[in-house]
Design a protein that fits this description.
By secondary structure, the protein is α+β, with helices and mostly antiparallel strands. 54% of the residues lie in helices and 19% in strands. The chain has helices spanning 21-38, 51-63, 70-92, 99-124, 129-142, 158-169, 174-181, 204-211, 245-271; strands spanning 2-6, 9-14, 17-19, 40-44, 47-50, 146-155, 193-197, 223-225, 228-239.
Length: 275
């Protein structure tokens, strides 16, 4: 293959075949446009939809369990084309200048950037296995060797609590009085049932009174906490089963991540000038 430049004309000669200058120019234009076309999923009314936009959407969908298939990609392409058609119409009507719409767009923009910031921070500041192990060891050291199944009735005034204790001693059923009188929305409907829990799950005055009871016993006097006055009945006690590190590792990791993010946010806030 030989090439030659004659005056202002270029030719490429392969044996007896000659490509004329006009044909060469057209071929060069087509070849130059191919990479740009490959970057676009489609072009709607002259406006391109970049393929990278489809990649982002497919990545989101596959992260939620969907399979990356030709059918999924065709669906995403169709969806993005429909969106582009609709957004062009919205722009034509000037809806983007509406104050409410602008505020919603800004809130969406903030949410996306904050998610990106969080992901970037956690990537640079990951929770280490040693941190998880240390947190687990602290949890294990604080955990009680027993679990308690208790019920309670919560009221606002001490006199009211004393009156309920008197009724219980007179033979009234604890569950019925809890449903009728307890101010605790989480347990009243279940007859005051607090389910199985360790003493650390409750505020100290409550847990101290609870562990002092024997199975089947009722607190003789009202127990005061910041929530009001409690009448406690201990249904049962059992040996606590402490979960293994592997069983609680995801929960501990998530908790430590949240603590890191809260500290990061507080650090940024402390440096911010707020008027």
């Amino acid at each position: 293959i030989a090439s030659c430049l004659v005056g202002s004309e270029m030719c490429i000669r392969d044996r007896n075949m000659t490509l004329k200058p006009a044909h060469l120019l057209a071929a060069l234009i087509v070849s130059a446009s191919l990479p740009a076309m490959a970057q676009n999923l489609a072009v709607v009314n002259g406006k391109p939809i970049p393929s990278s936009r489809a990649d982002v959407m497919i990545k989101q969908m596959t992260s939620q369990g969907q399979q990356d298939t030709p059918e999924l990609r065709a669906m995403v392409k169709d969806e993005l084309i429909n969106r582009e058609i609709l957004i062009q119409e919205a722009d034509k009507l000037g809806l983007g200048t509406n104050a409410d719409v602008k505020n919603q767009i800004e809130i969406a923009r903030q949410s996306i950037l904050i998610r990106a910031l969080v992901a970037d921070y956690l990537k640079k500041n990951p929770v280490k296995d040693a941190d998880i192990k240390a947190e687990y060891d602290r949890f294990k050291a604080q955990a009680s060797d027993k679990e308690y199944h208790a019920r309670h009735i919560l009221v606002e005034k001490e006199d009211e609590a004393k009156a309920i204790i008197a009724k219980l001693k007179g033979g009234a059923k604890f569950e019925d009085l809890a449903k009728a009188s307890s101010k605790d929305p989480g347990s009243a409907a279940n007859g005051g049932d607090l389910d199985w829990a360790s003493p650390a799950s409750f505020v100290k005055p409550f847990s101290d009174a609870m562990v002092a009871l024997k199975k089947g016993e009722l607190s003789e006097t009202p127990v005061k906490t910041q929530f009001g006055y409690h009448i406690i009945k201990l249904d049962d006690v059992r040996t606590a089963k402490i979960p293994t590190l592997e069983e609680v590792k995801p929960q501990i990791a998530e908790s430590l991540q949240q603590k890191k993010l809260q500290a990061f946010q507080q650090q940024l806030r402390s440096k911010a000038k707020i008027q």
